[in-house]
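Late entry, evening session. Most of the bench is empty. Finally got around to the prediction I had been postponing all week. Sequence below, unchanged from the version circulated by S.P.
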Amino acid sequence: SSNFARPARVSPPRSLSMADAGGEAAAAAANGDSHTNGDAAAPMVSRARQVLEPIRLRAKVIHGFGRGSKVLGFPTANMEVKWDLESTPEALQPHESDILKFARDCQTGIYYAWAQVVDGKDRGVYKAAMSVGWNPTFTDVKAKTIEPWFLHDFADDFYDCEVKLVICGYVRPELKFDKLDDLVEAIRQDGEFCAQALDAEPAAALAKDAFFAAEE
């Protein structure tokens, strides 16, 4: 898992840190086949635009492993999921229950979404490419993490701020990569695919969804 610190200054932000980045940098923590074609070309990754009924989530941004930004150059916002309260759902606030249920029941992989830092300095609603994947916790038990990459270059950090998400669709499952370069290229292409998907209806209209806070 990685966290959204001050964004790395990469050429136009258009990529996300996949859940793969939460494990070893050169391999995803999922059940896909290894996708490598030697040194000749990047692996082929199958993507599709699977439109979903909008899923609305909100959670605080917390510190994660930091591997995505440090190793891959694609920092993500690590959303708080209160796995420690899974057995005592009565202790959860409704929005905490919503994101826990989503994390527990959803398919791992890459999603496209609109996202907003509700209480940050920049409250714009921006495109995001979101990864959901398995990562080890401090107890060495794997738990799903939810990590959107905003396709926008923020000037300031927003740890401990609240992020709202409207998830619009699903792109592909988690995959395993043997080579770091192949992983980075897949991340870049995922970002481009998600950005294009969000330009199309019905996703495009959800940028103005009433779930988002009014910009100031």
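Two things to note before I forget:
The helical segments are 67-72, 94-105, 180-199.
The chain has three helices and six strands.
Will write this up properly tomorrow.
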